[in-house]
């Protein structure tokens, strides 16, 4: 049997089709491309039982991933992260079945590892020698590290303000790193210029290469496998470029077509920061795409994306699943981050904390019902953001007595 059932790529805007065995970037119409698989053929050979005994990482779903030759896989063991019950914090919200998909323990410290593992593996398969990308930090760190493992040269451009640890991850992996006094959109323009000048340079910008969606979609596959092929009622996702949300939606649709899950998808929620909420604004206005968000700012750096290339795909996923979009302010998400650590023992990243704040607000408004099964995605480790915690504690001299809190 084939290792991958990839067939071709298609444009979700103009429906034009592209070959999957050549390097592709955007459609000629400017839209991102999506990967198609021969699901009708795959359906004949593949069942949930096929997964028994497979590797405990995202490559267990290799039929539904784009790598044709297993020899091209570049892996650090990413995937199959825990789906944890969050009963104590859930009870403070009045949600009986709250779960967290915890990406805090994945290689490189954020779920960007999924996109990088699949994206870099496919780049290797297509003989890419050198890639470039703009980033808010975590994606650049993941792609730099996976590219190092693949022997591919990486050039990364990130805002000066991006978390310092992600800068260090790029530097230590030997990537060509540039900082920009500006936003990810400014970094994107710099990379765009370089890609125009050097045609051997592969543009690995979010959604300008088609394969990172495939890596991130494995979160959707895992969530339903971990729930024993039952779909939850709600999935909350911290949305910047929205790749994870697009990916989860795509994964669920593929599973419906394979007949592995019922044809009733979870309501997908795009969670953004009040200081950068273009998708929320578009959803509130019922628009099919978003507008550039001026002077965006939030401590949840991974979701500081003023205009996403795939905004129309994010909005489609929300509309089609009866989901919603909601903005959280920084103070609320920081408070939630502390609550999660105190009640559940997990140090989540600020983006992940935002999804819990969103669940709380949506339960308060009645949009989430008490008995529903709700999944909050923690997209990375709080350890990557030490500056989110202010510590004031007593300092003792040797021999002094410990205070009692
Ligand atoms: C990139 C990132 C996000 C947003 O992911 P998108 O798929 O671009 O929407 C959320 N959380 C963290 C920690 C990130 O690094
Ligand atoms: Zn097109």
TrEMBL record:
It comes from the Bacteria. The keyword Lyase applies. Keywords: Lyase, Pyridoxal phosphate. CDD domains: Thr-synth_1. It is an enzyme of class 4 (lyase). The keyword Lyase applies. This is Threonine synthase. It comes from Paenibacillus foliorum. The lineage of its organism: Bacteria, Bacillati, Bacillota, Bacilli, Bacillales.
């Amino acid at each position: 049997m084939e290792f991958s059932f990839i067939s071709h790529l298609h444009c979700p805007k103009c429906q034009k089709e592209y070959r999957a065995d050549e390097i592709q970037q955007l459609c000629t119409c400017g839209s991102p491309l999506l990967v198609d698989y021969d699901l009708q053929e795959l359906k004949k050979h593949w069942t949930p039982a096929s997964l028994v005994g497979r590797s405990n990482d995202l490559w267990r779903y290799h039929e539904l991933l784009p790598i044709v030759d297993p020899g091209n896989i570049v892996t650090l063991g990413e995937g199959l992260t825990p789906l944890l019950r969050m009963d104590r914090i859930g009870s403070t919200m009045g949600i009986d079945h709250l779960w967290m998909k915890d990406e805090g323990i994945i290689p490189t410290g954020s779920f960007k590892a999924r996109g990088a593992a699949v994206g870099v593996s496919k780049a290797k398969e297509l003989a890419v020698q050198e890639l470039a990308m703009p980033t808010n930090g975590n994606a650049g760190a993941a792609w730099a590290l996976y590219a190092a493992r693949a022997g591919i040269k990486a050039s990364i451009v990130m805002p000066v303000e991006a978390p310092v640890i992600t800068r260090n991850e790029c530097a230590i992996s030997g990537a060509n790193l540039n900082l920009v006094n500006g936003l990810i959109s400014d970094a994107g323009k710099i990379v765009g210029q370089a890609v125009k000048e050097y045609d051997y340079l592969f543009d690995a910008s979010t959604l300008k290469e088609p394969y990172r969606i495939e890596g991130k979609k494995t979160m959707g596959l895992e969530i339903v496998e971990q729930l024993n092929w039952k779909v939850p009622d709600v999935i909350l996702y911290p949305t910047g470029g929205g790749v994870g949300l697009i990916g989860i939606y795509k994964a669920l649709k593929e599973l419906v077509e394979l007949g592995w899950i019922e044809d009733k998808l979870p309501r997908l929620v795009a969670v953004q920061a009040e200081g950068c909420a273009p998708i929320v604004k578009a959803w509130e206005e019922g628009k099919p795409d978003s507008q550039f968000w001026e002077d965006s700012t939030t401590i949840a750096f991974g979701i500081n994306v003023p205009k996403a290339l795939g905004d129309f795909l994010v909005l489609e996923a929300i509309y089609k699943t009866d989901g919603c979009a909601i903005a959280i302010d920084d103070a609320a998400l920081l408070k939630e981050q502390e609550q999660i650590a105190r009640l559940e023992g997990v140090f989540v990243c600020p983006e992940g904390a935002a999804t819990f704040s969103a669940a709380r607000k949506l339960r308060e408004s009645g949009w989430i019902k008490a008995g529903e099964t709700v999944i909050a995605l923690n997209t990375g480790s709080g350890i990557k953001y030490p500056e989110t915690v202010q510590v004031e504690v007593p300092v003792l001299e040797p021999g002094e007595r410990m205070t009692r809190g």
